[in-house]
Amino acid sequence: MGQCRPAIVGAGPAFQVYAMLYRRLGRTNLRISEIGLGCASFWGKRIFSETDAVRLVHAAADSGVTFFDTGSSYSGGNAEPRLGRALAGLKNKNDLIVATKTGTRLGPRGRPYRDWSPASVRQSVEDSLRRLQLDTIPLLQLHGPDIAHLTGDLLDALVRMKQEGKIRHLGVNSFDMTVVEHVMTLPVFETVMIDYNILRPERFVIIEQLAAKDFGILAAMALAGGLYGRPLYGNLRLRDLWYAARAWRNYRADIARSRNFQFLNEQTGWTAGAIALAWVLLNPHVSCAVFGTTRLPHLVDLVKVPGRKLDGELLIRIKQAAAVAA
C-alpha cells in the first residue's frame, strides 16, 4: 500500500510544522493517518487529569492524527465519554475516524462481561453514540469475539445499524489468529485490529493474508507496551506503577522477550519508542499504528515518526533480537 501525499500541519507552540503521512484503510477507502491515538488504559482513568487527557487528544489532532480508538468498557467506562468531551472541542471532529468497540459491557460493580446478543450490541451502539457525542460511529469494532459469537443474527443486526446510519464501517479487534482467519471469510467486515509490534513479528503472515483481501489493518500495541525501555528508577508516578503492574499481570512473557531489545535505548537521534513505531510502519500493509500515551513529550516524539527510516544495520539487529526472543 502506497502512502498518500502528506499534508503540512501544525499543532500550536508545543509542535513544529512538519508533514503527517496518510494511508488507505483497506476497502473502506478512508484516508487515515499512519499513527493513531489509543484512548484507553490510564489515559481514561478518572485519577488521570481530564485537562491533560483532552490536551493530548487536541495535540494529536492538531498534528494531523485522524484516528482515535477507544471502547465502551475501557478505563472503567470513563474512556469513551472522556473522548467524547475531548472531541467536542475540535473543529474537524466530523473529519476524524473515531473507533469504538462493542461486545464487552460493564456490570453494576464495574466488572466487564461479554454479551453478543443483537439487542445488547444495539444498545451498546446507542450508548456509544451518546457518550462520544456523534451522529454516527465511523468504525465499530467487535471486541475480542469468539467464532461462535459471529452468528447470522448478530451480523444481520450490524448490517441493519449500518443501513440506519448509526455505523459507517465495521471491523473486528482480535489477537486470536484463528478468529481473524474466520473474519476474513465474512464480507461484512472491512477492518481488523491485531497486536503487531517488534515483539510480534510473526503477525506479518496474517497481515499479508488480510491485505490480499483488502482489509484495513490496524496495528494495536504498536509500541509493545514500551517494555524494552530503560527501567525507571526514582520519580515514579502512579501511572508508571499502574502500567508496570498491568505488564506484570498480563505480559510476563513479553517482559522476558523484551530484554533482547534493550539496545534500542542506545541509538543516537532516536528514542526506543520511536524506533518501535517506525518498525511497524515499515510494513506497507499496515494502515495505522495505534499507541497510547499520557505524556505530551512522548506524543510529540512519536508524531514525528511517519516518514523516518531505520538504517539497515539497526533493522538487522532487530531481526536478530526477534529471532532470539521467539
Could you explain how this protein is built, in words?
With 326 residues, the protein is of the alpha/beta class. The chain is built from 12 helices and 13 strands. It has helices spanning 41-44, 50-62, 79-87, 118-132, 152-163, 177-183, 204-212, 238-250, 252-258, 272-281, 296-302, 312-325; strands spanning 4-9, 18-24, 31-33, 35-38, 67-69, 97-102, 104-106, 112-114, 137-143, 167-173, 191-195, 216-220, 288-291. The strands form 3 sheets. It has an 8-stranded parallel β-barrel with strand order 4-5-6-9-10-11-12-13, surrounded by 4 helices. The protein has a 3-stranded antiparallel beta sheet with strand order 1-2-3, with no helix packed on it. A hairpin with a 6-residue loop joins strand 2 (18-24) and strand 3 (31-33). Helix 3 (79-87) crosses helix 4 and helix 4 (118-132) runs parallel beside helix 5. The longest helix is centred in the middle third of the chain and has 15 residues, at 118-132. It is globular, with a radius of gyration of 19 Å. 44% of the residues are buried.
